[in-house]
Amino acid sequence: MGVGIRGLILTLASVKDEFESHYEWLNRISTCEETMLKQIVLNLVRLQTSRSNSLALHNQVFLYGKILNTKTRLCPSLYLATDIKDFEKENTRTVDSLYRLCVNIKKIRQLKGWVLSKDVAFVEEIGQILKDMGANEATIANIFESCPEAFLHPPAEINSQRTLWHSVCPNDEQLVKIIEKFPDSFFCYKSTTHQKANIEYFQELRLSNKIISRLLASSPQIFCNSVTSNKKIINELEQNYLCLGGKQTNFKTWLMKLLSQDPFILSKPSLSMKGNLKFFQSLGFSNEEVLKLLSKLKGVIFDINREHMEAGIMFLKTVFKCREEEVKHLIMKCPGLLCYSVPTLNNRIKCMLDEGISVRQIKDCPNVLELTPQIIQFRIQKIKVLGHNVKNANLDIINGTKKDFEANYGKLHVKKERPMFNPVSPLHIEE
């Protein structure tokens, strides 16, 4: 049998010139056809029972791949296994099933090759569940490639997860899109009791199913917490909100906004938040101002170090030569200043001073300190090409997101190209 197979491959090699004349056609073969081609080679390897024959066929298959397609090269080190030992360890039934679904085995080997060695896998079963939900072949392959653990879970577990997620996302089409984007959240985080209880708790809080499904996808860890733990954090958030003058009727809306900005606040200690709120109050911020800071800083307020904030505020006072009231104004205008260390702020200010920008300009537009030196230099150089000088000018022109800057730059460009007169307006000439 082994001699016959080698003879077949050598026969293919003998028509090398004919195959080379068809490279253009071969390069257009579909992914599925390429997978079928790999399957043929895989079967040839399996027919070689002895290790010596397998090693001999290694080189012959490489030649076969080289003849067929110079781009893919059907070499065992790329498509069958990193070496013969790895190939022998893999579960052939799992590999066969993945090939039939047109899954890129190479990606799985690079990402989490150990899953291919598991004795039990449910490739076909999980693929069928996803297919029943409306997923096409490409989507199923994409899910398996990005989350190989997906086919290691029994179908009963996956159906249970599907039922659970249906409680907040009943539409299968939408659910498949979520799974494709966040496969780990669906397949790897399973704490059914906690998940179900937390979903019910969030629904009792009247959070929308859209928000809950988004949380379940982007931060599944918080659903693995006990309901008691999540309730404690939310109750403390509510108390702080009410103490700062917030209205009970607005709390649910405020909470939804806060969770959508940073859902991981439910996994952070509340003591840090209490300490930071007291620190703001000690600086003279009113309850209303602290509440605004809390909303603007999103969940960052849990992570800000009090010592770093104190150092940053002292630095701003020194650089801008301002009083406490002025520092409060700067912080309210740009709360992000509290998040940066003194060396970072110093580096950014120095960069702008080197570009000819004055301290006064920075003080009038403190949000510019949220930009890195590289971005500042790039934007300044770009508007200089249009003949615009930032010295003594409003820094709003280089401030903001990339989209904001491009809009401002576009206005400058149009202004430069605008003609000095309207060519279609009538000329008033005395006759």
How is the topology of this model organized?
Layout: H1 2-14, H2 16-20, H3 23-26, H4 31-46, H5 51-68, H6 76-79, H7 84-89, H8 92-100, H9 105-112, H10 123-132, H11 137-146, H12 155-166, H13 172-181, H14 183-187, H15 192-204, H16 209-218, H17 221-224, H18 227-243, H19 248-261, H20 270-282, H21 287-296, H22 306-320, H23 324-333, H24 342-354, H25 359-364, H26 373-384, H27 402-417
Protein name: Transcription termination factor 2, mitochondrial isoform X1
GO molecular function, one term: nucleic acid binding
Organism: Xenopus laevis
Outline the low-pLDDT stretches: 1-33, 47-85
Tell me the radius of gyration: 31 Å
Number of strands: 0
Shape: globular
Q: What pattern of helices and strands is seen along the backbone?
A: HHHHHHHHHHHHHHHHHHHHHHHHHHH
The helix-and-strand class reads: mainly alpha
Q: What's the number of helices?
A: 27
DSSP helix fraction? 55-70%
**Strand fraction band?**
under 5%
Mean model confidence by pLDDT: 78
Major sheet description: none
Instruction: Tell me the distance between the termini.
Output: 106 Å
Organism: Xenopus laevis
InterPro entries: MTERF, MTERF_sf
Pfam family, one: mTERF
GO molecular function, one term: nucleic acid binding
Supply database-style keywords.
27 helices, MTERF_sf, Transcription termination factor 2, mitochondrial isoform X1, mainly alpha, 0% strand, nucleic acid binding, 431 residues, disordered N terminus
